[in-house]
Amino acid sequence: MSVASFSERIRAGADRTWKAILDHRFFSEIATDTIEDRVFARYLRIEYGFVDTAARALGYAVAKAPSFQERRRLGLGLYGLVTDQEQVFVDAFERMRAPANERTALPPQGLALPLHALFLKAAETEGYEEILTCTLAAEWMYLTWCSLANRSPSARGYIRDWVALHAGGPFAEHVAWVRSEIDTRGPTLTEHGQARLSALFEEALEAEIAFHDAAYSM
Predict the structure, then answer these.
(1) How far apart are CA 187 and CA 204, in angstroms?
(2) Is residue 174 within 8 Å of 139, Cβ to Cβ?
(3) What mean pLDDT is predicted for residues 8-17?
(4) φ, ψ for residue 82, nearest 5 deg
(5) Is the dihedral of CA 64, 69, 73, 79 positive or negative?
(6) Burial class (CB in 10 A: 0-12, 13-18, 19+), 152
(7) Is the per-residue pLDDT at 1 higher than 80?
(8) For the domain with range 6-216, which CATH number is right: 1.20.1560.10, 1.10.10.10, 1.20.910.10, 2.60.40.1930?
(9) Of the candidates 204, 139, 159, 174, which has an alpha carbon nearest to the alpha carbon of residue 30?
């Protein structure tokens, strides 16, 4: 019997929360192509607002990475986040024909606030492994969601492309790399350090649930 990797163990430790997020209304409606355009548009504005927080957290990860090899990998990711990723939102709003005043990023507020706060606190006060663990929770969630939803693509191109973006390609490769970093470095930490990563992983999932609830709080 193969031994579970460290990332698999921390996910198993958060099994109830992981299952809850896979059953989230937002994902269910994406997968069945029943999500209302106004809900998806609001989600995009909330997520657009999170790009700045993610960029700040990733910047800390670059600074705290153990060697140039990791800094280079994360630096390329940061560059993509602040260039190509922004264009994803611009293009989606254009294809949805969203009004000009509904194409802006929403600031951290309401149900979305805990995710912003968690990422920034981890980035500012904790280490490389802790920042990557928060990142892993979010990105592994999206990869799992969208890999499933991509089996029955949406009739709406902007949703279909959003799903495809998170279901494979460079995004999936990045998730695999982050997992490999956690799988390599997690077991070298003290018992307390390993427990901290487990707690952060679940806390990030809980914050993601609230973050996606925010798309419906209009």
Answers:
(1) 20
(2) yes
(3) 98
(4) -90, 0
(5) positive
(6) exposed
(7) no
(8) 1.20.910.10
(9) 159
The whole-number average pLDDT for the span 19-48 is: 96
Burial of residue 213, with CB atoms counted within 10 A of its CB: 0-12 exposed, 13-18 middle, 19 or more buried:
middle
Which among 119, 163, 110 is positioned nearest to 137, based on CA atoms? 119
The span from the CA of 64 to the CA of 90, in Å, is 31
Q: The tokens of 148 are what?
A: 């499933």
**How open is the CA angle 214-10-213, to the nearest 5 degrees?**
5
CA gap 215, 29 in Å, rounded: 12
Contact 29, 215 (CB under 8 A): no
Torsions phi, psi for 207 (to 5 deg): -65, -35
* Residue range 136-195, pLDDT digits in tens: 999 999 999 999 999 999 999 999 999 999 999 999 999 999 999 999 999 999 999 999
Element spanning 147, H or E = helix 128-149
DSSP for residue 102? G
Residue 211 has pLDDT above 70, yes or no: yes
pLDDT, one tens digit per residue, over 61-102 is: 999 999 999 999 999 989 988 888 888 899 999 999 999 999
Domain ranges of the chain: 6-216
